[in-house]
Amino acid sequence: MKKCIIVANGTPPVKGIFNFLKMQGYDTLFCADGGANSAFKYNLIPDFIIGDLDSIEEKVLSFYQNKCRIIQFKRQNDTDLEKCLKYASLKKYEEAVVLGATGDRLDHSFCNLGIVLKFYDKIRVKIIHQKSLLCAYSKNIELLAVKGETISIYGFDQRTKIVSTGLKYSLKNIALPFGQKESTSNIALGDKIKLQIRNGKIFVIRDFELLVKHDLFQYT
Question: Which domains does the chain possess?
Fold first, then answer.
């Protein structure tokens, strides 16, 4: 499976996460325009810098000019992160971890969360922000867990129904429409959780550091 990292122009991730993800098989580094500023800060050489190039610092662009492939798309009908995901999907990448997807612009953060759903059928997208890992799921899934782990689940409409097994607060064929109902800070009762998801997609947010500690990230 071809997997990549995409650094967006939000809050810079901690440097150590790049080595961890590389060990997990995410061996291609994309920077979405200003995300290259974070790579430069950590002395990383991306494989691709993609975007309209209005956020990358001039010194950073100059430094990377002959060190990686820089692709400028001037169109304004999609974001720099979307440009990266479209290119990665075109190149047959099947999974991407996005770093720097959230920051001081709430509109950008909200848009980037939605992109996980927008690209769901083209490329699987996970978002890591500080201690949290966000994944989208549909249909029936089984997740390896840590007993006592905090797991939050969010839906988007009335059509999507969820049945859970292995959570303290059971979901019994209920919907979690955005802005009306959610399952925040649910708790794993054991080492497995089963979710039956009908007619849609959901977000599951987990403790990234806990998953790393227990060697479970690769099973998300």
Answer: 3-130 (3.40.50.10240), 135-219 (3.40.50.10240)
